[in-house]
Amino acid sequence: MKNWLKVRFITGFFVTVPAIATAWLLYVFWDAIDNFFSPGYERIFGRRIPGLGFLTAIALILVMGTIATNVVGRRILAQLGGHGHSDLFGLPCYRGDRAIDLRGFAGAWHRSS
Predict the structure, then answer these.
(1) Which DSSP helix (H) or strand (E) runs through 93?
(2) How many domains are there within the chain?
(3) Helix and strand totals (H; E) in the chain
């Protein structure tokens, strides 16, 4: 019984603390974005619109993800796959019941860019 309680407490701790920390960091981020853009939005729309800071934060995250995927992602793949694919792409990647060979993916990626 003592071991059962200890395992459940530790598991609960390691699930709850990161969830609360993530929620708090997102709140701080959205609040900072809202406070930064709020004066400009008030001038444009003539009044404060609730939730516009949240939408702006989501848009910024989407833009940053797009930039990172297109610019940084290609550079990383170029470094890893280069001109004679690295050993990383020779490793099988398992999805469900079948293995996917990443060498074909890397070659297709480099041909399309």
Answers:
(1) strand 92-95
(2) 2
(3) 4, 2
Helix 73-81 crosses helix 102-112 at what angle (to 10 degrees)?
Answer: 120
- What token pair was written down for 45? 């729309």
Instruction: Write down the pTM of the prediction.
Output: 0.49
What tokens were used for 40? 């400009």
At 95, which amino acid appears? R
74-107 pLDDT, tens digit each: 777 677 665 544 455 555 555 555 555 555 554 4
Do residue 58 and residue 88 come from a single domain?
A: no
One domain for residues 31 and 68 = yes
Calculate helix-pair angle for 52-67, 2-45, nearest 10 degrees.
100
pLDDT digits (tens, 9 = 90+) for 54-81: 888 889 888 888 877 777 767 776 776 6
Tens of pLDDT, residues 35-49: 888 888 999 999 988
Identify whether residues 89 and 74 lie together within a single domain: no
> Which residues, in sequence order, are CB contacts of 109 under 8 Å at separation 6+?
74, 77, 81
